[in-house]
Write a structure and sequence with these properties.
- The protein is globular.
- The chain is of the alpha/beta class and 205 residues long.
- The protein has one domain: 3-Layer(aba) Sandwich (Rossmann fold).
- α1 packs across α2 and α2 crosses α3.
- It has a seven-stranded mixed beta sheet, sandwiched between helices.
- Bound molecules: S-adenosyl-L-homocysteine (SAH).
- The site of S-adenosyl-L-homocysteine has 25 residues, from α3, β2 and α6.
- S-adenosyl-L-homocysteine (SAH) binds next to α3, β2 and α6.
Length: 205
């Protein structure tokens, strides 16, 4: 499947019914989701691999990974309503990721998730809930040797320090998230947020 084809497939998915600002629920735009996944795919980290999508929301990254030929896909999400939408989206696309309901702040969740080959994630940026992304980064390093995540532009120094001794930054891709107005406190109809797709590799791998 080509990049543009993947983007087109992902652009037909349903988004959050009632997005929660506290959980920073917004759907990754299809162009950025496809870019992250396709990049991982060309590096050999998707096809035939066990993929875990942390904070899978309405499922765009999990479903895209399945469409690109992952051997299995697990989505982990705290919000049961989002899992219901993700399951509908997956059925519509003819793929069947396994969605697990759980909170990444809960250390026991790791045992339920088990080891994977690759993590993909769009963690909360911590705008509403400072450091919300730390649990995601810890989980990512814990369950897979390589992780692809979307972070706010400028997160790199913090992230590099946070993972020091455990993982290394293997690549950074600049991108722009074009978000439609999601929450009442958003003043503009469309907002462009510069982001970085960051690749982290566990040191022991
Ligand atoms: N992966 C989706 C959603 C990104 S929004 C996409 O790319 O479109 C971030 C998601 O993380 C939301 O669905 C939110 O409910 C979930 N989330 C936030 N904190 C979480 C936590 N502690 N444990 C599990 N999921 C969490």
């Amino acid at each position: 499947m080509r990049l543009k084809h993947l983007e087109r497939e992902l652009s037909g998915l349903e988004g959050f019914e009632k997005p929660s600002p506290h959980r920073e629920q917004y759907t990754t735009p299809p162009d950025i989701a496809a870019r992250l996944l396709y990049h991982a795919y060309t590096r050999g980290d998707i096809g035939g691999k066990r993929i875990c999508d942390l904070g899978s929301g309405t499922g765009i990254l999990a479903i895209g990974a399945a469409l690109l030929g992952a051997s299995s896909v697990t989505g982990v999400e705290v919000d049961a309503g989002a899992i219901a939408v993700a399951s509908r989206n997956a059925a519509k696309m003819g793929v069947s990721p396994c969605f697990i309901q759980g909170d990444l702040e809960d250390p026991d969740l790791f045992l339920r998730i088990g080891p994977h080959d690759t993590v993909v994630m769009n963690p909360p940026f911590g705008a509403q809930n400072p450091h919300a992304d730390r649990a995601f980064v810890n989980a990512a390093i814990g369950i897979a040797p390589v992780a692809y995540g979307i972070f706010n532009e400028g997160s790199l120094p913090f992230l590099a320090g946070f993972i020091e001794g455990r993982a290394e930054i293997e690549g950074v891709i600049q991108a722009v998230l074009a978000l439609k107005r999601t929450f009442a406190f958003h003043r503009k109809e469309r907002k462009e947020i510069p982001v970085e797709i960051i690749i982290m590799r566990r040191i022991d791998s």
